[in-house]
Amino acid sequence: MHLVPLGVGDAFTARHYSTCLAVEADERWLLIDCPHPIRKMMHESPVEVDVPTFDAVVLTHLHADHVSGLEGFAYFSHFVLNRPCTLVAHPEVAGPLWDRHLAVSMEHLIDHQGAALPEKGFADYFHHLPLVEEAKVRVGPFTIECRRTIHHIPTFALRVTAGGRTLGHSADTAYDPGLIEWLAGCDLIVHETNYGAHTPYEKLAALPPMLRERMRLVHYPDDFDVEGSVIEPLRQGRVYVV
By C-alpha distance, which of 90, 113, 98, 88 is closest to 30? Predict the structure, then answer.
């Protein structure tokens, strides 16, 4: 399994793209979160990926720095590929996605002469595979599990398994020892760090060395000391082996 960070920054970054992960196994791909400008992020990737490459988009939560590119991704799927986008998300994430985020810009379309077309809905753009905390979801070679995090809105950490390897992703979260324990068995752990209602770097730096060795930092602020970190930060545009 391979991991390609298309973005590593937070909501306020001026140096990076917002956090977004592309994951590959057996030449199949998942996109974890979907910020804007998603196709430019893909275009600048060290591997050749675009909207048709991905079997599914997995959403951790609905903050804009994680979902602002979904409208463009879904429009591309609808108008260019003539197929819905497969969306993997917990019902508490997918539930408000349409009415409270996308409907205002996507439900009303016109034809080339300006006449109104029939109103569109969620199912016209998306095929939803619900994540639930009590079960695993299968997408191609990937098995996906989720766990709720401590954040402002419903947010879900992930464990993604393929080919006998498991990638853990904390998603946005305050420091949570229970979540660290849930991720501890993963072969590679991608954990956020930031200010406010996020995970302080100092908490992660105090973890046991064997755990830190399998951990990579993401969603870090622009002033984060990348070179001085005792945990390796993910670098945008590199390819990592899980």
Answer: 88
Which CATH number covers residue 171? 3.60.15.10
- Give me the number of domains the chain comprises: 1
The 3-class SS string of 84-133 reads CEEEEECHHHHHHHHHHHHHHHHCCCECCCCCECCCCCHHHHEEEEECCC
Instruction: Give residue 161's domain range.
Output: 2-232
* CA-based torsion, 86, 7, 66, 203: positive or negative: positive
Angstrom distance (rounded) from CA 166 to CA 144: 9
CA–CA separation, 95 and 100 (whole Å): 9
Tens digit of each residue's pLDDT (9 = 90 or more) over 127-153? 999 999 999 999 999 999 999 999 999
Three-state secondary structure call for residue 201: helix
Is there a domain that residue 240 lies in? Answer: no
Q: pTM value?
A: 0.96
The answer to whether position 239 is within a domain reads no
pLDDT tens digits, one per residue of 42-96: 999 999 999 999 999 999 999 999 999 999 999 999 999 999 999 999 999 999 9
Among 81, 74, 86, 94, residue whose Cα is nearest residue 52: 81
